## 1
Amino acid sequence: MDLEQKRLHALRSLNLLDTAESESFDRITRMASQIFQLPIAAISLTDHDRQWFKSKVGVEHDRIPREKAPCAEVTDSRDLLIIEDFAEDSFYCDSVLGLSGVRFYAGAPLVTRAGHCLGALCVLGPEPRSATAAEIAALKDLSSLVMSQIELEHAFGRVDPTSGLPNRLQFTDDLTDLARQRPEEERVLVALDLAQPDQLERLSAVIGPSASDDLVQEAARSLTAFLGPAIRVYHVSPAQFVYLAPAGAKTSTYQPELLRLLQNELVSAELHYAITPVGVTTAFKPGLSLPADCLRSLSSAVRETRASERPIGTYSNSHDIDYQRKFRLLNDFSAALSASDQLRIVLQPRLDLHSQELLSAEVLLRWRHPELGDISPAEFVPIVENSALAWPMTQWVLTTALDLLKTWKAAGKKIKLSVNFSASNLKGDIVDSVLVALAVRGLDYSDLEIELTESTLMQNSTQVLEKLDRLVGSGVALAIDDFGTGYSSLSYLQRLPVSVVKIDRSFIMALRDGARERTLVQSMIKLSHEMGYRVVAEGIETGEAADMLRAMGCDEGQGYYYARPLEIGDFERMTRSSALTNVDVAV
């Protein structure tokens, strides 16, 4: 959002435009007219294409075009403007005001605390004149009075209606004031996070929609009673309160007080066991930290404290940097999906362990960020999979892989490709999306294999079986990826329409550790065969491991011993080569 859009948003959020006359504003306008002894005065708000008068003296109409309006220039510059004679001003002489007989103009900006200029308090006259220093000072004071009145009339927007406490907007203003008064004073900001979102959802499901309101109201009363009238508490998000610790407090020494607060009876016994409140602190200097940055620091500390399952914590710069990087990667990945030079696929060959024949390849995604360089999939894939971009990412990989299969088919080359799907991909009309994508390219459904992890299948057991049956019934193969690392039961595995089990690399890497590890892998292969699965070993890095697996009867293998993930060109050269081992092309 650009600055003008933000300014217009700020103006409209105050609900001033096109509203009825107000004596509180008219009183100020009359004072401006009397001080300057001029017949015209107005509180002029700058909309996108007009100047609309919230209050006016000596004017019949309530608006003029924004084009060539002096108040528009005041809005853009956020500075005082005086035009002593319109007739002598080459720009304004033929404006609406100039042509109507106005010769003098003085306007002072109406600026919010956030720095958005709403318009101007202006005075106008039919004769050329100048403005004295006292008049200018008075006009500035009156413009400040207008803004105070606006804030007063919209004070309800600074109090949360549920808790009755000052809200995030008031917190921002108060910290801005503190920055002006004591910019170098180190202070401690405290946040109390009552509950996690899923806990609030469960409360609403069990008790009713009013449960969250009851929780907040009880906590607000307990918190203010515990802290006393000298400390102002702010309600900044649905289940989060913040306040400034007393002057002189340090994050290290305030921890016991924060723990005592958490041990206080914050909510009733009915709600007590349904929530897990946490408290966190962050140190800052008002003159060096924006209010929004302080709240972000507290949010980062809350996430880290909850992840560590501790009741109290403090802001860690390293964790905040990590979160900011994750946030940036997620936002930048959205742009990468539409860019032509950031994302690409590489292919990890899968071979028959006995014939050494190249059977298929796993499709892997790679991202070269324009500023950060190559981003490891181990870093960005989990971030994206837990967002709304999960399916767009999979769709990009699937589309690219199927386009490659189409090219190979035209060249007479037949190779199956395997694409990884996450749990979130199994929602919506996924089956039709996959089948249509294959059909429009003239591909056989058997050209595609979809890999799903054990945990993905178990988490969605009742919802996805029908979809998986439809895919398999159409000819698409399904594989269980990372087999052995999940928590699947044999009874459930028997119900899955999968044909391939991929033993996780952690088991293959441990083959040399001893007889117990080898027996485990042997048992996994035997069990999978007895259930009708074809078995693939992941992470084969040595010839010794390949020989062991071959002796155990494992069907296929993939890993660095055969080839690292290959660029498409290198993979195609590999398919033409008779030597299908030890292809050392790292990606």
Note: The CA atoms of residues 43 and 54 lie 6 Å apart.
## 2
Amino acid sequence: MSRARRRRLLRSLTAAAVTAGVLLTTPAPTATPAPTASPNPSPNPAPAPTSDPAAPPAETPPAETSPRAEAWVDERLASMTLEEKVGQLFVTYAYGATADTDDPEDVARNQEWLGVANGREAVERYHLGGIIYFTWSDNLADPVQVAELSNGLQRAALDQPSEVPLLVTTDQEHGVITRLGEPATRFPGGMALGASGDPDDAREAARIAGAELRAVGITMNHAPVADVNVNAANPVIGVRSFGGDPAIAAELTAAQVDGYQSDGGVVASAKHFPGHGDTAVDSHVGLPEITHTLEEWRALDAPPFAAAVEAGTGAVMSGHLRFPELDPSGAPATLSEPIMTGLLREELGYDGVVITDSLGMAGVRETYPDAEVPVRALAAGVDLLLMPPDLELAHRAVMDAVASGELTEDRVDASVRRVLTLKWEQGVVDDPFADVDRVDDIVGNADHRAAALDITGRTTTLVRNEGATLPLAADGGDALVTGAGGAVRGLADRLAAKGLPATAHPAGTDPDADAIAEAVAAADGHDTVLVVTANTAANAGQAALVEALAATGRPVVTVSTDVPYDIAHHPAADAHLALYSSVPVALDAAAAVLLGERGPLGTLPVDIPAADDPDRVLHPLGHGLRYP
């Protein structure tokens, strides 16, 4: 986002944020020398607010806990070896559908990755604090299998001398980042909820998602995404964000934290601090740099994280971002004491668990060797180290840092105490196991699916409707559905089921001239053409396809299933519907809106800039048309 546009946005949002009570007004902190114990010294350290400008940042005390929790945490800490304590700081993955898998391929991959055969042995060897599930690591075949895997891993943890259960984690943001798939209930994700703008919907979506995760033994969800997406070119956040208004994002972030933790029963992990919404680089492949000033950070990026802290989020995930105005040393935020301690712990007052984003990502590996990264992260104020690229190396590096005095055992104890307290407070200690017999009654049940459709029905956004092209009449002819992805057939099938003859003709994500010519030929004889789009800015063939179809003289309706910015690239479209997702429930809602069974109730949660001028707003945040 350009500086000029950011200044205008900041001025408009400052007034709104003050009205909503989410603008941070803490005085600018005074620069302080880097503490000598830190492995990340800088000649010009970033400001870190303290009561004594000459003193290094103090260790933030843990939140108040019940006497029973405190007694359990004290007892566990006193009984654990240093090696066991360090193990509690790591969350990683292991291949396999069962805790003691003997599948040859998974065993081979585990041996290469962890030096052990399976997840059970990984827990025993490294005394892990947590595990994370992915489809590609063969963890997520079906709900009952996941529940049995979780139980097997928890038994392995509780069989250890420390008897500390695991945090079983995944990334179930919904929308584009969905790990537990069908038959689990699926929602269209953050930006769709931003289009609804209803905190009750956000809370209920999180409650349902949390209940289904807990049913399969997952106790921590790396969600919600608290980043404020103010950059239409953001390659990694986009529809994962609630949108571009920090006040709305703050309200929905707090609602989802409450839904996950109070009702859903899983730990929420608000991400990616200090805010990933104005990046043009994907931190999986590089180190993004954000040029916001401290004032801009407080007004634009910080409010959702402040709201998450106020709502009692169990965890905050760091982002691998360079943020020079917050830390002039250039260290990624994950490794920055001024950001992790000075801003998150001291300015925002957060005393819970801080977890890194994956330490295998390029954004945190560009600056320092892999052996230094976990030590620097702990020195910066982080507690949990997620997916280091070499777990044995990382574990040994932390042990060596304590032996050398680079880290103190007290510093390790502070993080372990936070992790153990979190496990107690979120019920993981009292109830670590999934009830396998109840999984099928909870995951994807009829009530959850009905609620998902109801919520999603309030998110579909009508951005353009020239000549009252929409709604379509079921008896008003037939339609060709073309464009990108599996949503083409899904949408055509749903329209046909509702009485509108519809033919699917997938053209591909980035159609070439031949694919475009075939789609134009296929449109012959159809009354209306619907074009499914998905990130047109990165796939120029989609714009050429819409232009060619519009030239036939038939009404053309574009339906974006990813970022809503696509409309800026389709000036010839007669109507445009933004879904923010291609999950089945989003297509169900879209078909109902296209045929007028439901009205379009969503509004844009972001500004849509013109394709040829990012400083010119084509459709403003809050725009959304209605049927008469």
Note: The CA atoms of residues 38 and 379 lie 6 Å apart.
## 3
Amino acid sequence: MAIGSSAAGLWVDDMMVRIEIALAGNGVLFRTVFRFDARARLGPLKATMTGAGVWIGRWTAGTAGVVDPDGIGLSLAAGPVSGGGFLKNSGPGRYAGALQLKILGVGVFAYGLYDEIPGGVSFAALIGIRLPLPGIQIGFGFAVSGFGGLIAVNRRADLDALRDRLQSGSAGDVLFADNPMANAPKLLGDMAAMFPVERGVHVFGPTMQLNWCSLLMLDVGLFIELPGPRKIFVAGRARLVIGSEDFALVRIRVDFVGGVDLTASLIFFDGMLVDSSVLGIIKITGGVGLRIGFAGNAFFVYSVGGFHPDFDPGKLPVPVLPRAGASVSIGPLWLKQEAYLAVTSNTLQFGSKTEAGVKIGPIGVHGWFTFDALIQYRPFYFKATIDAGMEASFNGWSFASIRVQGSLIGPGPLVLFATATVKVIVSISKDVTITIDTTPAEQLPPPPALADLLKPELSEVSNWRADGTDPDVGFTGADGVGDRLIPVGRLVWEQKRIPLDQPIERAEGRDLPAPASVSVVCTNAGLPALTAESDQFALGTFSRLSDAAALAAPTFVTARSGGALGAGAMSSGAAAATDISLNLVTLPHRARVALAPGSIFALAAGFHAALAERITGASVAHESPVVAVHDETYDVAGGSTPIGAVGAMQAWTTALHSGGVAVPSADRPVDLAGVL
């Protein structure tokens, strides 16, 4: 059923009346809506209401009704008390609002979002109090000039959206807005993007404003995303102003965010210069970024001013940073200097660019010099490039220029490329290629054999231990030191280098030619077989996973890490009946008794057992557990090698090579009969 409508409006004094007529497509339903925007004043109080009204006609809700207002605003100017606020209807079940008051020099503000979601509500609110300068003194020239906090229920923190808004200053304005009424629509829009709705996730954190000698202002907040915590991060902005706000000799503002994202196994920090200048004419730009991946996705990235133009980060979550530099423009002259430095797990990158120019009317001349370098550690490789030149233009059309480009790439071989171009209406170019050295490039050593990697672990003393309990008997080495080997216990060997009995695709950071596995067995005749010992291993370290599999697969899986060798059950001799008699002798005084060395263990154990029973009561015998907890198993369905009830690592690797799908064994099959 299509519905058409039209509207017209007319101002009458302080009231705007709008008439809307809506008709249903079949002509049965119709209604006329009368909306009005009203303004009113009562002494120092002003009020505004938009979009309220009534409707009449024949509609799905009856023959008449009331139309809720789109927004309500209030403002107050009563001497020592001033401020205002508004509440806006942003759609069905969605509201946004802001409030700002100043009472005897103390500023109070709040703004937030409210959404109705299935089964509850979602809201985010930021509240702050600003004290008049110099604030509350805490020593050494520092003072607290404000405090507040963020409360977000059924909303998560989108750190990517927060980092994307650092350079523009929007992130700092949302979290630490001193005047939310000045730009409320953009402020609330950015807030909705930075804290989107997500049921069951909540964000909380206090904020504080510090100042030093009224020159340096620091806004900072500590935020935690629950449950978990899932994320813990610090966000803030630092402002340095030398001079006045109208004419600042130095104006520096840095917006930053950093913390730990446990959902992505990531430690991060980003800082950006925002609206910074010196003497009002030298503009300063730049940014710094840090990324440290842990768990199964270990990497390191640090950058000041960005990265080399040819750097391909792949799947690494590297930040987008502006170049660090300064620029100045005085009349027809302008000058710009930029630079960057980056260090990653396998590269070193740095470079700079200098530009200068002059423009008089339609004629412009500018020159430049650019240098970029990229050094890769393993296998060793480097690339250095320069680009220098000068160009003259008329109304944007280049009619004369000279340019020299060169690059040095190596090793394997070491080659110098150079290009020179001269243009006077027509371009003329010349290329030169010189091979300086033909030494082949460094090659990574072939992937190691898994057995060779495991051999040193067998002789590592820290990988061996004795396991078992027997309070009465113990053996030690000939020198009287070392772990005790219990006769009824086990000898355990464990290592953390390679998971055993699992298909391995990567080892020591390199891909294997084909999946392989390694096992450890005891070949001595007469000894029992080794029992398996298990530990946690990072799946991504030993498997090549696609992007989809990396997102779905568990970060750590349980796999065999070693084995244990036990003596088995003890052999008992023939039983013989014996009468035991006890002679009790009461000694009149204490006497020192010399005992044989072999009996000390038995007496100590007996006294310990008697004392334990007297203190703790009767001992409880160990029985078989009623509930057992095991690691989740997986099935591989489809493909050329279907298997069931295996560990996560074996399931994911098998599915990758056989074309199947790895699913938890506990998942019930879905019947698609009648659906497809």
Note: Helices lie at 159-164, 170-175, 184-194, 450-458, 539-542, 547-552, 600-616, 648-658.
## 4
Amino acid sequence: MAVVVGTAIEEYALLSDRRSAALVSRDGSVDWLCFPRFDSPSLFAALLDDDAGSWSIRPAGPATATRRYLTATMVLETRFRAADGTLTVTDALATGGDRDPHALGAHAPHLLVRSVACLDGAVDVQVRFRPRPEYGLVVPLLVPVDGGINARGGPASTVLSSPVPLTIDEGAAHGTVRLRAGQTVRFALHWGPLDGQRPRAYGDAELGGELDRTVRAWRAWSELHQNYQGPWRDEVHHSGCVLQALSYQPTGAIVAAPTTSLPETVGGERNWDYRYTWIRDASFTMDALWVAACPDEAAEFFAFMTTATATPRAGARLQIMYGIAGEHDLSERVLPHLSGWRGSRPVRVGNGAWSQQQLDVAGELLATAALFADRLDAADPTLRAFLPNLAETVTQVWREADYGIWEVRGAPQHFLYSKLMCWAALDRAVTLADRLGAGERTGGWRAARDEIRATILRDGWNDRIGAYTQAFGSDALDASALLLPIVGFLPADDPRMRATVEAIAAGLTDERGLLYRYRPELGLDGLSGREGAFLPCTFWLAHVHALAGDVDAARRVFGRAVGYANDVGLLAEEVDPATGALLGNFPQAFSHIGLVNAAWAIAQAESRARSGNGA
């Protein structure tokens, strides 16, 4: 059997202009790029198939590589040490203007800049450019133009700015340039639609200016927003930058990840498109940015939600997810021409979960609104009507079965987490009622909230297992039960909660000390195969230990999870229990959210311990 080759997920770094994203491998290859949006068809997709396009710049011979993000930015610097010299490649998706930190990416020109500098000695630099638009379906026509190469094919065109001549051959361009110490050359790729402003070649000075402005823009945002001073400060600040990088500047939407179909197990079918806005993930992202950054993005996010959902009437139901410009229909399809990362098929675009009923989403949204309550006084009237109507809907639907936080593709159930977040929705709605001018509705909200609480305490607990379990009447453990204390339903040191934590730690921990979200081999989710350990759930466990005052345990669990960040501080969704390799779409917002919130909880627990207030 042929060996299926694919670059390890942890070998990639993220570039973002807050509109689109690229993944760059350690050896200098851009293997994923979607212009002009996160969810646009790819221009480079070698991540999913070797023939689906890439753009590499690296030493022509053997070299070792180290890399980092420039301080407080998402600008990547890769340093290659070759036999006869040292080379740096600095990569960025240009953000455009740098004057207003709140407008980071607002004027992004759809430009990927790659600056190559020789630090010492002399290095032969190899350039290979193979664009393949439309997820690899199109082999474009490459035509030399003044200052570079124009690639035409499909609904858009691109111009590669190249300071050196390149040879065009079968839909690819390639060449080698020798750089000596002190020399710098800059390349760039500019995208433009056929029915809009056409792309162009950029000069060296222009590209230097775009790169400098991008560095300044990220640093201005970080200086204004990054205030966290607790443990793992650098990791929290970097996660704040990553979460900002995963937000879509024009609308305030937040993608769960910038990729599609990176699998939950190598060769498996659990391959999904994450380039959309889940209400759950986006709400949790806002909560994390409240810790890792300042809350200025909240207004954008809520404006997006009220526009995207378009549900002003009481009783109307939210979708669980939307497109980044508010699209509702995210119908899923398979791309059969792509072999998938390491043979993991099918490759999917769109996500069929958009049509599922999941009852938890109102809870996450209202919990985020409560966190930013002081900003609701001056909120848009549409938002002030929207939030109470969400609560009203919860009173009507909470008794129904749904597909749960993990979006099972089996039968609906009465999932514990879904009921918990229905409780949270009404609990926060009661808190917000006066601010929203909805005080007269609180009687019904309180009654439903208390009924949900009693139901969870009665039906969510499983005497046989000695824990709160995945669904009412189920014997299956589920790490989402760890949210019971995180959202304030039960104290973390409640005896039943401690028993649940112990059961989850014993029953869902892999040999590396990381948590599975549940046991897929039980066949409860309607899918075949296994999956990796789930990093967000491991951070939840650390978070709960901190809430219970078990700081040493919290630090141990947190340390294990954060140790799976790659060399530039990025986390995927899952970890392969056999190899420790990263799995799933990358980087994953949910994992960075868990990191931020768990670090915050540990900081608070340590502060309480110092002041003698205990847990």
Note: The chain has a mean pLDDT of 92.
